[in-house]
Amino acid sequence: MKKILLLVFVCFLGIQMTFAQDVISVKEFLKIKGNDNVVLVSTRKATDYAKVHIDGAIHVNHKDLYKAEPKSTLKSTAEIAKILGAKGISNTNTIVLYDNGSGKYSGRVYWILKYLGAKDVKILDGHMKAWRMARKPVTKNPVKRKATTFNVALNKAAIADIVQVKKASNSSAAVVVDVRSADEYKGIKESKLPKGHIPNAINLEFKKVMTSKSKLKSKEELQALFNAAGITKDKEVILYCESSVRAGVVYMALKSALAYPKVKVYDGALFEWTATETVQK
Can you give the residue ranges of the Rhodanese domain (predicted)? Predict the structure, then answer.
């Protein structure tokens, strides 16, 4: 009987670890913090990093990874790999990301790293809020790691282009998801871009995958959320927002927490779409 109970416990623990494979708690992070292969990355704004950051964290600004046009779209993979390598980030590191708690910036860098083929990328659950609540050390002193090489192993399944989005928006086998607020989706909120959304796209705001404490919701809560929105595992899922910065954390929730097989981020996002295509209200 004891062996059976132990086996059930181990299986349960395995399920929990699988769910949390790309989310790491402050307590779990502290256990690996001293490992030389672990890189802690603040994805907050440079001004925030300069004021205070988690002790030992380097800084990566997601905007440094973009080309000028279309706005907020990725530089070449070679350019991004060079930037990451100069920061001391290798594709074989365990990379732990955090931001102020919105999940936007860490999620964006998470998706970029997964797209480039980084093997082990995690997001600190609760971000800076959780670190502060745990009363762990912070500093103003910038951190610099020894430069290394980031070898790209491109994950083409993680990205969608405008041709794929057009096809998906007219397919019952796919769902295009606008992760902006409802007012942005409906074209109510003021915007420099044409008001509205990609035709036939549905709306699920990125904030809904997290709790009020900036932690990822449970597997059960996430599955119920996506099912209610019609975002099911049998469909190809393409995520976007104005710049697709907000899409990254939803990508992580679908791929890591729920193991959805076909999830992409439309990197061109509305900036690219509205340059040539119409929107729907």
Answer: 34-140, 170-278
Does residue 134 sit in the same domain as residue 35?
yes
Q: Could you read off the pLDDT of 220-235 as tens digits, one per residue?
A: 999 999 999 999 999 9
The length of the chain in residues reads 281
Q: What is the pLDDT of residues 62-84, one digit of tens each?
A: 999 999 888 899 999 999 999 99
Is position 5 within any domain? no
Domain count, the chain: 2
C-alpha–C-alpha distance, residues 142 and 231, integer Å: 41
